[in-house]
Design a protein that fits this description.
By secondary structure, this protein is an alpha/beta fold. About 40% of the residues lie in helices and about 15% in strands. Helix 3 links the parallel strand 4 and strand 5.
């Protein structure tokens, strides 16, 4: 019987604790130099892309190198539901070129057609939904797009999101069932639990497809309140529903996540993310809390931390 490969992770962070691209009112005036310095001070090996970053790799590479960081990847707001594959490739080309030039190992793709993530007066419960047959057809197109990204050396990881057409555990299952293995899964703990998904069951079903992980937490008291008062996704972010690993009000089980990572032999990035208002949640303190919490659970479960 083959031995399960030892799990190895690198710890990275999303810039959303300093600057939230989707919500201009949370796109704080914190200078780029300060937040890169704080990411470095907190001890992270890499960071995902922010709109504040220069798009020219000749500028971005030395900027990150000066802070001992690598670019992990960056979110792309997909529109494949409405576009054909060739048109979507053209839209993706500039972003793909940047990721290739920066040596990024993956392309983060989210389907944002009809998304309510930035619509302040639309309840998140009113997000768009696809019929099963529509999702099957979408899966065929997505596989073609993902095959192309594999040929470009920057494979796709699909980001399910609570405000989009692929949000729930059932929708993730359907997407995985109706796509080929070229479509990797970005598992976001916060978005999965936000939609009522079972972290352990979802991870175990799709362990072989999980190629990137966002470690995001949720404040349990606010989670119940948003459901009873039908908040918009934007309000959820503004009110502080999302938080980082290590927050005592959080309800996501990161010890469980580390155990699943170990059992699956996952090797890749584990990225702290929290869509927060930096005026309410001090970014450096949050970043430090997040990395220490992940180091603790990884150490307890025997998951090697690299970089």
């Amino acid at each position: 019987m083959a031995e399960t490969p030892k799990a190895r992770v690198r710890l990275g962070i999303s810039p959303r604790g300093w600057s939230t691209d989707d919500l201009p009112e949370l796109n704080s005036e914190i200078p780029l130099e300060r937040f890169l310095l704080e990411v470095q001070r907190a001890g992270y090996a890499g960071i995902e892309k922010s709109d504040k970053f220069p798009s020219d790799p000749k500028l971005l590479r030395p900027l990150l190198e000066d802070h001992g960081l690598v670019l992990i990847s960056g979110w792309f707001a997909g529109g494949l539901l409405e576009l054909d594959v060739d048109r979507e490739k053209k839209r993706m080309a500039p972003h793909l070129l940047l990721l290739q030039e920066m040596g990024c190992p993956m392309f983060i793709y989210a389907e944002t057609t009809g998304s309510v993530q930035a619509k302040r007066h639309v309840p998140v419960a009113d997000r768009p939904r696809l019929r099963t047959d529509d999702l099957r057809r979408y899966g065929e197109k997505l596989t073609k797009l993902a095959d192309w990204l594999v040929s470009e050396g920057c494979p796709m990881v699909f980001h399910h999101h609570a405000a989009t057409v692929v949000a729930s555990e059932t929708e993730i299952d359907l997407l995985m069932a109706n796509t080929d293995t070229s479509v990797g899964l970005l598992l976001d703990t916060g978005h999965l639990v936000f939609t009522g998904g079972d972290l352990e069951a979802t991870f175990r079903r799709h362990a072989s497809r999980i190629r990137h992980i966002h470690a995001q937490n949720l404040r349990a008291p606010l989670l119940e309140k948003l459901r009873s008062e039908t908040w918009s996704f934007a309000r959820c972010v503004i009110e502080g529903v999302f938080t980082i690993p290590g927050d005592r009000e959080g309800c996501v089980d990161f010890s469980l996540l580390a155990r699943l990572v170990r059992e699956a032999g996952y090797c890749g990035w584990l990225v702290v993310e929290a869509e927060q208002d930096p005026r309410k949640a001090e970014p450096l303190a949050s970043a430090r809390m997040g990395i220490e919490a992940l180091k603790e659970v990884c150490t307890e479960e025997g998951v090697a931390i690299e970089g």
